[in-house]
Structure formats: C-alpha cells, structure tokens
Amino acid sequence: MNYVERVLENLKAQNPNEPEFHQAATEILTTLAPVVEKHPEYEAAGLLERFVEPERVIMFRVPWIDDSGKVQVNKGYRVQFNSAIGPYKGGLRFDPSVNLSIIKFLGLEQILKNSLTGLPIGGGKGGSNFDPKGKSDREIMSFCQSFMTELYRHIGADTDVPAGDIGVGGREIGFLFGQYKRIRDEHVGVLTGRGLSYGGSLVRTEATGYGLVYITDEAMRVRGDSFKGKTVVISGSGNVAIYACEKAQSLGAKVVAMYDRGGYVYDPAGIKLDVIKQIKEVERGKLKDYAQRVSGATYTEGCRGIWTIPCDVALPCATQNEIDENSAKILVKNGVKYVAEGANMPSTLEAISVFQKGGVVFLPAKAANAGGVATSALEMAQSSGRMFWTFGEVDKKLKDIMVNIYHNIDGAAKEYGYAGNYVMGANIAGFIKVATAMMSHGIV
Ligand code: NDP
Ligand code: 2IT
To answer: Which of 26, 115, 205, 424 is least surrounded by Cβ atoms within 10 Å, i.e. has the fewest?
Structure first.
C-alpha cells in the first residue's frame, strides 16, 4: 500500500459512519499521489495525516423556544479544519440533514478551495441540523441567538470567520452578527455576507453564482466557445442557482430548468428569473407556483428528472450527490459539453468518472464555486481597512480571481501530465500552497 492508500484506509477506520467525509477525502487524496511521490519529505513530516485531521471540532447544544412555547434542542457544529494559510473561513449550513460527516466533508473541501482563491484564508465549516423551513422570523432569531451564544467564544475576525451556506442567508447572518456584537461589544468583520448597512460587501450576494459563470465562460473562451445561445440546466433555486442564472442569461444563454426540494420547472422559452426571485427570495415559497404563474412552463415532482433535459451546460447548484452515475450518463448521452459545480460535491465519484470519460469539460466545486468565499475574503479586507469598494471594483476582482483559478488548475493539471483533468488540477494546485505553509510551520 502506498502512502495515500494508507492514510485513506486509516481515515476510514478512525472515522466510521462518515460517508460524505470518506467521499471527499477519497477524491482529494487519490489525486495527490503524484504530489507526495515528488515530495517524499511530506510523508516524513506526516503531512497527509495532519491534513485530513481537523485542528479542532466543536460540537454544542443549541436550545431555543418555539412560537408555541415549546423547548427545542438542536445540534451545533464548527469544524476548524486548517489555519495554515489564514484564519478558518467557511460557511454555516442550517439543514435537517446536517451531521458531523457533512460538516467535515465541507470543511476539507473548503481548505483547498480557499487556497485556490489566492487569498489568505484557511478552511472551516459549521452549521446545525436546525430546519429553517416554515419557521417564523422570531423563531429564526431565537435559534440564531442561541447558536451564537456558544459559537462567539470560538470565532473572531482574525481567528475564524463564518458565512452563509444552505439555509443561511442575509437574514440569518444579521441575527448572528447582532448577537455576536452584543456579547463581545465589537463591531468587526467576524461574519461575511453581512448587510450593506453594517459592513457587508457589494457583490457578495451574487458572487458564487457569478463566479461560477465567469470560470465556465473562461473555459469556453479558451476553446473558442461562449455562453451565447447555449441551453443551460441549473439545479436548485437558492442563492447560488439564482445568480448563476442571472449571469448566464446576461451572457446570452437560455436557462430552461431549475429545481427546489419539491421538484423541477421546465420552461422551454427560458426561465423568468424575476418570477423565481419573487417566489424564492421574497415569498420563501415553492417552485411549484412558477408553473401556475408562467404559461408554457411545466412542473414535475421530484428532482433527478431535471438531468434528463437535454442541455449544453449543466450547473448543479443545490447540494451534495445530486448527480449520480445514471444522471451523468443521461447528460453525456444528451450531449452536455460543460458541467461546472456550483454546489459542493454535487457529483458522485462515479458521475465524475462518467463526465471525464465522456469528454465533458468538468469544473469541480472547489474551483468553480470559489467566487463566494473569495468575495468573502474581499469583504474581510474592506472591513479591516474600514473602506468600501464599488460594485464594479468588487465584480472585476471576482472575475480576475475566477479567471486566475481556471489557468492555475489548468496549468497544474498539465504540469503533472493530466491535461484537461481539472479535478487533479484543482486538488494539486490547492494542496501545494497549504502543504508549503504547513511544512514551514513545523509539526503543529
Ligand atoms: P440556499 O439555501 O440558498 O439554496 C439551496 C437550494 O438547493 C434551494 O433551492 C434548495 O431547495 C435546494 N436544495 C437544498 N437541499 C436540497 C436537497 N436535499 N434536494 C433538493 N434540493 C435541495 O443555499 P445556497 O444556494 O447558498 O447553496 C447551494 C449549494 O452551493 C450548497 O452546496 C452550498 O454548499 C454551495 N455553495 C454556496 C456558497 C454560497 O456562497 N452561498 C458558496 C459556495 C458553495 P428549497 O428551495 O426547496 O429549499
Ligand atoms: O461553500 C462555500 O464556499 C461557502 N458556503 C461560502 C463560504 C464563505 O466563507 O463565504
């Protein structure tokens, strides 16, 4: 067994019942074999063993009282995975599916993603199994205040800076920030994705979706191609999906389908994004209503069917493992040319292999959705400098970062003899910076 195989085997034995963590670690570690072969000093320094072990895992009780007066208890998590290149940075996810395995997979991915941005941010992730669906604003506030009453002691503007993810948007960040400020008596950039009136950055709301389209557009540009006239399918209808749709449409693409947890809408004339925004952002409603409001659109219960719609570009922007091997085969058979991951780990390992064998340009999450956390780092810079950049300034920096990431992962893939394999390129390029920093720090 080689070094990578031993570390992976040990990880699985020591962390049983964490399938998502195993999946992310397998994808990453297997691609790092050529790097550790080239650098035998990494094995001597136990580098991979340290890389896959979080620096700190915090788990806590989150008690709160619902509108009927009943006491509710949720689980809270923050995994501070790696601070070699900067303070821990990564989102908070509030979703009933959240468990330690999911937070650890997200944290591990975040280390390499944050490295790829080129900005000084380490990797972390957190969240709760709290379900925001159907809760009143008062209940959301009560939960967020209780969550922060424990979390505040572990985070800080130079220590660990959380942000949003599934189920955590501007409303939740506001309540979390208010409670942090009240307890600590500090108005600092301890969370990103803040409102513009209290230190947030322009473009942060749009950043992940816009960034996803910018990097895909660059992959197209170098191939003499563009979004113009392309048929696009986007899964999800949350923050990432909505702004990916907005930017793809502005570049001349036709987005024909989106989904939420209930099912998918197919609109052959092109999705009316103002209707989606009204339903999902304003009403916090269900996509099912779209078909009632837009003639010519159809709604189908269930999610997977969305991948049977023929498209040139697929942008999975909802959640992990939403594209399995079978869906990947259907997409390839229908002629998909580009798959770029807006969500974290939306493709199973088998699906990735189908895309790569099928000649699809496949841009993995840690590169493709890095625009969100990159803009978070720009928000941190503005907070520290107590100044604000214009929309155009932040948008230009975001675009430059995404274009750089494309060329960085493309270059790393070529350097190691895997031209066009952006899974290899992203893992290798992201890892080398973190490994170099860890080697400088000694055994810590
Ligand atoms: P949101 O909560 O805003 O939206 C999530 C969307 O995905 C919603 O439409 C939701 O449906 C749908 N969804 C969630 N879980 C499921 C599921 N199990 N089955 C089907 N649909 C589901 O989250 P974001 O847009 O912020 O995040 C989406 C993805 O992007 C996640 O993987 C996240 O980790 C990743 N990401 C987010 C970044 C950010 O800046 N926000 C940055 C980088 C990655 P419904 O509307 O019914 O709730
Ligand atoms: O997965 C992600 O990169 C995010 N949810 C955004 C993290 C951040 O700190 O902005």
So the answer is: 26
